[in-house]
């Protein structure tokens, strides 16, 4: 391959991401719950949470050019776009995708584990940071330096597996003043704890957090692409 062809190949690779799926559904979580949303699910994740419901995104996927991704997003004709995974920030070119989506006028959210630096994410993106609890098996991966970077445009999510996780999460919220910084969301892990029990704890403690359940799972269970 000559130098010109090699440079062209490198440029093409720089505009590609490995994608598991792109689909239209209702946003089931966080601030935009209920809005018709295009989900762009990137392939790959360095974490292995015990309750993970998207393990099918760990491997495989197809390389897609960012222009092609944007064209498919546009075809669905809605305003909200969620870039998710896996762990989308594990692919460095995710930043370019986020920027391009914002430039195109979409309301963009990013679902990220919080194990990777969020500092370079376009500030127009609403970052939904999933802080890993002890029962997730990945609490040691939390990058605590991310928390001071959060703004009112962002959100923090805790998926809880029981009382020990709840008490731990309450401590994190209070220690870092998260409720004064951004929206804080507490969710019950579907297979690990009763949702009503978590709701009762939040009410009893008058916590300044939002209880949430995954709307898409109530509607469609674990059906892929929904």
TrEMBL record:
This protein's UniProt keywords: 4Fe-4S, Iron, Iron-sulfur, Lyase, Magnesium, Metal-binding, Queuosine biosynthesis, S-adenosyl-L-methionine
GO BP, sorted A to Z: tRNA queuosine(34) biosynthetic process
Residue sites binding [4Fe-4S] cluster per the record: 45, 49, 52
Family the UniProt entry places it in: Belongs to the radical SAM superfamily. 7-carboxy-7-deazaguanine synthase family.
Alphabetical list of HAMAP family matching this protein: QueE
Ligand binding (Mg(2+)): 54
Taxonomic path: Bacteria, Pseudomonadati, Pseudomonadota, Gammaproteobacteria, Lysobacterales
Protein name (database record): 7-carboxy-7-deazaguanine synthase
Gene that produces this protein: queE
Enzyme Commission code: 4.3.99.3
Enzyme class: lyase
Domain of life per record: Bacteria
Cofactor notes: Binds 1 S-adenosyl-L-methionine per subunit. Binds 1 [4Fe-4S] cluster. The cluster is coordinated with 3 cysteines and an exchangeable S-adenosyl-L-methionine.
Domain Radical SAM core residues, every copy: 32-226
